Amino acid sequence: MATCDGAQTLPKVLDGYCRLHAPRCKWRLIIVENGSRDGTGALVAQYQDRLPLHLLSSPHKGKNAALNLAVEWALRHDDNDGLFIFTDDDATPAPDWLLQWERCAAAHAQYLVFGGAIEPDWAEPPPEWLLRLVPMGLTFGLTASDLAEGPVFPGLVWGANMALRRSVFAAGYRYDTSIGPNGNAYAMGSETELTRRLALAGYTACFYPHARVSHFVRARQLTLDYVLEKAWRFGRGKFRQDSPGTYPEWCGMPRWMLARFLRECVGYLRASVQGDADARFRRRWELAYLRGYFFEARLGRRKLGKRVLITSYSGELGGMEMRMAQEVRYLRLGGADGSLALRRFAGIDAWAGRLAREQIVVAEFDPPRFFEQWDWRRWNLLRARLWAAGRLRAFRADLVHVAWCWTNYGASVLWLAGYCRLPAVISVHNAFPATEISDWHEPLLRQAFSAVRGVYAVSRSAMAHFMAIYQPYLPASTRMAVIPNCVDTDRFLPGPDLRRAARGALRLAEDALVIGAAARLSEQKRPELLLDLFVLLRRRFPQLHLVMMGSGPLEAALRDRVLAAGLESCVTLTGFVTEVEALLPALDLHILMSRSEGFGIATIEAMACGVPVVATEVPGSTDILRDSGGGVLVPADDLHAASAIVADLLADPGRREAMGGQARKEAVEFYSSAVVGRQVLAFYDQLI
Q1: What is the spatial distance between Cα 180 and Cα 186, in angstroms, rounded to a whole number?
Q2: Same-domain status, 293 and 311
Q3: 618 near 595, Cβ under 8 Å?
Q4: Is residue 503 part of a domain?
Q5: If phi over 0 gives left and psi between -120 and 50 gives alpha, with beta otherwise, what is residue 135?
Q6: Which of these ranges, 312-321, 582-591, 671-680, has the smallest mean pLDDT?
Q7: 229: in domain
Q8: Residue 361 covered by a domain
Q9: How many CA atoms lie within 13 A of 542 on its CB side?
Q10: pLDDT at position 561
Q11: Which domain of life is it from (predicted)?
């Protein structure tokens, strides 16, 4: 629990802990003192001889910051996968509270998120009108008495009595510190923001009514003013939890809420004229809630920093999408707020679930494509004006970042930004061929590029190809930069222990000779050519093994081909790998046989792991390896020449070792997250 000036309620609560029936397993009580001025810390210390108690002090204000501190401490000191139970400094547990939570954890092993019963402990008898009209959950954090054991809506799991398994926090989830009690008129949603975020990531919640606490309700909380203030706070918290762009908006507010506000005003006037006190109260409560929502939308949002919407014409999960998510992280370091908006593709839900752990929002956005698709272009342009423009405005962005993946793939949303009078930047992620601009598209393209304030490309080649087409349309003041993709050099690491662990995971002998690639199994990456290269190399190195990490449209055909050739004992197709850094150190060489590359993130990831790299001499890969001592280039369309170069490397372990050391050095010096992050923030400086 977190406590701030809890000296009045804590004695009763801690006495309740002293009366608890001990569960079979070990338990610990962590209390985080959060800026108290009433001697709370000294009071809690008096119980340390009577309870398995650990007292922490949070340097940051706010309940959620304090709870995150407790979570971090518990993760370091307790490694069993037990329950992390959260409660308040004014919630007294029933004597069998921990026994019931222990039974709950065993009986509902399929759940990771739990809510317990929260009963009232009235300081004085509540007035009749309050019991009859006030929503007890939202106002006092009380659970309904008739709520049954089993699955429950995550918004009904509340902080005075909730539990999450340790694995949830080990996976990286934390409380949002911008929401919840922090000593002033705060936005509500301290725990429900977390439980709803977990629900979006696929974690279902369970209600367990037998684990009970009594929540103290003070006399001052039984007044009309307090109830309406809580409604206002609830509205503020609701705005914080709504993803930007969820609903069509007008002047920054969802249109349906504006209509609802007008209906509530009319309803309040009607109830006043009719003398219906109950109806008048209900209308006042709804209006207070809506005013809180509007307050946060119009005033609170200004405190959250500039908002950048990062979007793209994306068709699959790959390096560009990973870079877009990394861009959000960089923007946060610079004090801005970033979010992603993409059309649906295979794997987006699982990816969005992983990003939800970091509170990175992935919204669905698929505007009509009148540049990318020739058919129905006039109809799509009309739809863009009538519908998609409003949808883009609903994201409340101060700047639109368009990730340009191919030729004109991104031009439609760039035009939308200009149409909505929103400044835009472009990031170029591929070296694509020249294309002709039709007479119909020409004026639209000029409109689209009028919004552009900056362009950066992930490689010199990508920038050259982009400028060959679009330089005539760029404003003279456009900021230009080449900013490579990055690799987390604290995550992708070299080392003999990591190499042994990776080979163990792949069931490879420690002394085996292994080549491979981490790449999507698609036509661009040409995995079938890598398999052909492997077959040629096996003639000279019969013990050679191939590892292909990734999935994609060619995966089934590759598996069939491996089986047909009888290579299943020496070729491993892992499928999609979430933590590729755990397998890359197994390789003696990382080989990318791509037809084209914008940059080649897998190449620098392998380099960071100390693995020497080989790539075809195509734009993107050439930018990385042209002057590199950590890898070599091979002809893109001469398999026998490529085989000879790779064979020389496989036959020379000393050379490979030296290349691996140089590859790691270059990855840290040129492509580490910190180095690239500084370049990204310098690019955005003054643009937003």
Answers
A1: 6
A2: no
A3: yes
A4: yes
A5: beta
A6: 312-321
A7: no
A8: yes
A9: 0
A10: 95
A11: Bacteria
187 — pLDDT class (breaks 50, 70, 90): low
Which of 299-308, 310-319, 628-637 has the least mean pLDDT? 299-308
pTM: 0.60
Tell me which residue has tokens 């005013």: 291
Residue pair 609/516 in contact by the 8 Å Cβ criterion: no
In this structure, the chain runs to a length of 688
- Tell me what the mean pLDDT of segment 647-670 comes to: 96
Q: Are 629 and 607 in contact (CB under 8 A)?
A: no
Q: Facing residues of 2 across strands?
A: 32
Give residue 133's identity as a one-letter amino acid code: L
- At residue 307, the 3 state secondary structure works out as strand
Q: Are residues 646 and 553 in the same domain?
A: yes
Q: What is the pLDDT of residues 534-581, one digit of tens each?
A: 999 999 999 999 999 999 899 999 999 999 999 999 999 999 888 899
Helices 319-333 & 601-608, crossing angle to 10 degrees? Answer: 70
Domain's final residue, options 189, 221, 253: 221
Confidence category of residue 362, pLDDT binned at 50, 70, 90: confident
Contact (Cβ atoms closer than 8 angstroms) between residue 247 and residue 156: no
Token pair 């930004």 is at which residue? 417
Q: How far apart are CA 102 and CA 21, in angstroms?
A: 11
- Under DSSP, the state recorded for 284 is H
Rounded Cα gap, residues 428 and 482, in angstroms: 9
Residue 146 — very low, low, confident or very high, per pLDDT cuts 50/70/90? confident
Same-domain status, 420 and 506: no
Same domain assignment for residues 561 and 637 = yes
Query: How many domains is the chain partitioned into structurally?
Result: 4
